[in-house]
Design goal:
single chain, alpha/beta, Rossmann fold, Heat Shock Protein 90, five-stranded parallel sheet, five-stranded mixed sheet, 15 helices, about 15% strand
Amino acid sequence: MSPPAERALILAPRGRDAIVAKGILREARIHADICLDLPELLQGIHGGADVAVVTEEALHGVDSRELAGFVATQPPWSDFPFIVLTRHGGGLERNPTAAQLTEKLGNVSFLERPFHPTTLVSVVQTGLRGRRRQHECRRLNEELELRVNERTAELAAANRQLLAQIEEREQVEQTLRQMQRLEAVGQLTSGVAHDFNNLLTVVLGNVAFLEKGLAEAGVDGKLARRLGYMRTAAERGAKLTDQLLSFSRRQRLAPKALDLNETVAGMRDLLQSTMGGSIRIETRLSHDLWPALVDPTQLELAVLNLAINARDAMQIGGTLSVATANASLQPPLYPEEPPAGDYVEISVTDTGVGMSDEVRAKAFEPFFTTKGIGKGSGLGLSQVLGFAKQSGGGLRIASRPGQGTAIRIYLPRAETPAEAGAGPAPPISADGSRGRTILLVDDDHAVREVTAAMLRELGYVVREAGSGGAALDLLEREPGVDLMLIDFAMPGMSGAEVARHVRARRPALPILFITGFADRTALTGVGEAQIVGKPFVDSELVDKVRLALSAGAGNVVRLRR
């Protein structure tokens, strides 16, 4: 009997880690088997498993030569994924023993305990997807090798053509492996960003309460300044989280038809002040430019990111060129390029030091930088790539050492004319919602506590639930609930599933989602006005709650399956 498809193995001989991990994966509909020792794990791997979850201590003090031999002798198409659960405080930077496992296991991800169930599921799903693509690559290799053998036997004179096909196949395999690695990092950073945003919500929320309390008590001075430092640090952490979400392509975008010529013209003063007086700025704007479908704010941030990189590459003096053009592209040659089709191009070109082939190959890897320590996070280009890909486009780089760099962003062509500049937002009507009842659903107790405190200070009656099931039970007992505020990423029953059950029971009840990231495929049909991003502040929370309560039935979530 053949082994089940996409099977995970768990080796955690001590404690309840194995049972807990299997339960979490079962809730996510991932088949998982528990192994009692290393020989049973190897037997399962040879039997057709697709990913292995192993605790760090399970690999200590045992003969792992057979495991190392399996990793070293895998066929070219195979790169079996391992996930090592390290002890608390056992991250790579503080755990050289764990770091040594990278050489032994090869394709290994590390997850520090205790972990969030969503993060474990995300990492395992990433491993399963990678293994699935390896099998697809294996089938592709077998088909290509069969064709090579047939053509070699039939026509020896076609040897050059066959060698070209083999070279092309190797390039495809290399590109596929790079895409798998980038996707794995993107999925992992997305889960980390979600957990980090929960922490920042608690920090910023409590800092706001402390600042308000000090202001009411008339206290000023050193303590108030220290709170200000805490707020600034937390806000910088939120900005870094946004960069991680941009790389993993899970940031929230609000695309609209946009005239890129107007965008470039409007950014000229900002670019000049950023570049300084020693750098000359040129703009080349195409006539009859198509409108682009893009989030204007994120586009400006991407262009500014590229301009800052260009400034650093030019060191002292030089020319920065920003241009627009219509582009009809052929099929891509590199993974960062968009599919074939019509796009609107915006390019940023510098006269700096340029890139070598080695630097060009690593340019889009997260945290890769050629700048000195403290001068760059290495997320700039990967963030721009994530934005372009999530927008439906891509990037191209042209660069040579000593001859500067040109980076072209390709954005989808909009079918409608570009919109005029947005006017001021309509004012929110006088607040008549005080005293209304809100059902708050969040599995994180600290986040739920600070959010509930914010809402109660605003005059609302708050009912709390720590899971989707508890929320539905409470909704049955509380017919007077006027609004639901639901965390999107929860173990067991997600926010989307809770919303579907609520819609079946009370179709007119308005719903808002609070989330550290927004999976746009799962949240199809949910507008930006129905999403409160973590970490949030009082103003955003109160505005969206008031708007939802005033809109009533018009703010009902219509999630599509």
